[in-house]
Amino acid sequence: MYKNKFIAAIILLFISGTAFSQNEDSVMIKKISDEILQNGTAYNNLRSLCKTIGQRLSGSPGMYKAEDWGVKVLTASGADKSYKQQCMVPHWVRGKKEVFNAAFNTKMKPFSILSLGNAAGTGSKGVTASVIEIKNFDELNKRKDEVKGKIVFYNYRYNKKLLGGGYGDAVRYRSSGASNAAKYGALAVIVRSVTAANDNNPHTGALRYNDSFPKIPAVAIGPNDADRLSNFLAKDKFRLPFNLFTHSQMLPDTIGHNIIGEIKGSEFPDEIITIGGHLDSWDPGEGAHDDGAGVVQSIEVLRVFKALGYTPKRTIRIVLFANEENGLRGGNKYMEEAKAKNEKHIMAMESDGGGETPKGFSCGMTEEQYAKVKSWKNLFSMFDADRFSFTKGGGGGADIGPLQAAFKTAQFGLNPAGNRYFDYHHAATDVFENVHERELHMGAVVMAAMVYLVDKYGL
Ligand SMILES: [Zn+2]
Question: What's the pTM?
């Protein structure tokens, strides 16, 4: 079936003819695909990143181990040079396990929670107060007089009709819910986890405090426990008190690094193609989909070129970005250094949507550039990864965003199917076992294919 499809694609290309030598290109892309699917190291690299290091939040011991791992793996994968680029990163620590339970009944099962990233802790005294359930920010504003001295529970549900868009919609409560409630005198917030999953795992992630209001503690609650709490509150006429104990704190910034591996271009060494994912991860799981997958896929692009003896015309730079999750310091630092050195960045690609089956790319570039990219579309049909979307200007990913802002660098964001991504994202379930080898490797195939085309023809 797959083979027939491929032969049909070749015949079609031969008959129709195109502006580019697509016959030659489809042969090369098939070689890339065969090499990665047969001999790819991305899956094993992901295993070692997840199982020997695990979580690697900015400033944690895991982050430093992962940095050394990155240099080693890039070198072993054939980089001409691998190095660390220093940047300061935030250093937030979770502290000991959080507790949220009923103050009025010690027999009630405690709720499953996790502090949100960057959140202040309650300290050992904790917060004891009644809980007010709020469905959304409109309701918060309407009931602002009832919020003072309470714990606000945002029970905003993930819109399952929207897939990834459901995340963008619900994440507002995680990122700005604390300050919005603090404005009205709330003591702490509990946020329904931003996930489509039906389990009880809390999902952490960054919050941003508005400096005008007190920095109150904030936690995520597992989806099942969000329902249990909501059911209890609906029947509770006495507004009974609950205890919240969290121990997180923000320490002074510390040193971190982007990890970079390069192959020097043979014809246009000054033209740089950046391919990357972020090396940091949240702490409950192993950062397998987010973003170990993007890290090992990016490294695989470099490895496959070396393995096939393909020497790129332009300089290929693999960047394992620092601190995407709670600061974006790595992406900003990479752009600043590029600016200081007056580098020429023609293209940047990011994989930060998990390791599921690739479907295509988000293309953030000029209309002329996109017309060229679109002419390569049929080369991606054989992988069912020819869904290209276009945003004039930006729109490829967080870490490569600063490059776009500084140099108008063309952006490619890998788009995986994403059906399961937000089940695992920032939760204890984001582990190696939940990534599938072939799906992960297919992502690396289409990334390498696109990089090959841009390298060969320019943009
Ligand atoms: Zn990510």
Answer: 0.94
